[in-house]
Amino acid sequence: MAKIPKATTAPVAKTPQSPIVSSAHLVSPQSAEMSEFEFGLIVASNAFHRWVVHCMSAAGLKDLMPLDVLVLHHVSHRARDKRLSDICFIMNIEDTHLVNYSLKKLVSLGVVASSKSGKEVTYAATEAGSASVQRYREIREQCLIQAMHVDDGLNKDIGELARLLRVLSGMYDQAARSAASL
């Protein structure tokens, strides 16, 4: 009986993994990771925006844009009246017109009310707005937060990621100021 030679496989050469990016022309040899982060941020941002719109729609407020939902949440934050400038400052939005448009839309829907004291206009959630935000919270708990119980370390990782995002937002803000001065 003839002996069958054992099949051998050539060793697989390890190749450096290419970064997963959306714009290869921006990948820097000094930090390919930044391009990977930016792509992840784009994808996560779009997924988050889709989520807030669908969650608020399920809560009963349909046809809102992501910024509308986020403005409603901020106006509802701590049940204190907010000025347009405060909302823009906290949300890090330079274009006040975008937030002002969202506020007008929310006022017309009856979920936000405006009040004037002298020249100052402030905004607060109405009862209907607070109810919508509460319903959003319930749906968020059911659909998003409960899914996080799969991995006990996930909350710790998310906390660290939030810290890193705040650090990076400062870096991007500084880079934007530098680019604006060129």
Task: Describe this protein's structure.
Helix content is 58%, strand content 8%. The chain is mostly helical and 182 residues long. It has a 3-stranded antiparallel sheet. Helix 1 crosses helix 2 and helix 2 (66-76) packs across helix 4. The chain is globular and about 60 Å long.
Q: In what order do the strands lie side by side in the largest sheet?
A: 1-3-2
| Main sheet overview | 3 strands, antiparallel
Strand proportion, as a percent range, falls in 5-15%
Low-confidence stretches: none
Strand segment tally: 3
Shape: globular
The helix-strand sequence is HHEHHEEHH
- Specify the structural class: mainly alpha
| Rg over CA atoms | 24 Å
Mean pLDDT: 91
Protein name: Transcriptional regulator
Domain HTH marR-type: 66-129
GO molecular function: DNA-binding transcription factor activity
InterPro entries: HTH_MarR-typ, Trans_reg_MarR_HTH, WH-like_DNA-bd_sf, WH_DNA-bd_sf
Summary, kept brief:
This is Transcriptional regulator. Residues 66-129 form the HTH marR-type domain. The protein is mainly alpha-helical and 182 residues long.
SSE topology sketch:
Blueprint: H1 32-58, H2 66-76, E1 82-83, H3 84-91, H4 96-109, E2 112-117, E3 120-125, H5 127-145, H6 154-180
Antiparallel strand pairs: 1-3, 2-3
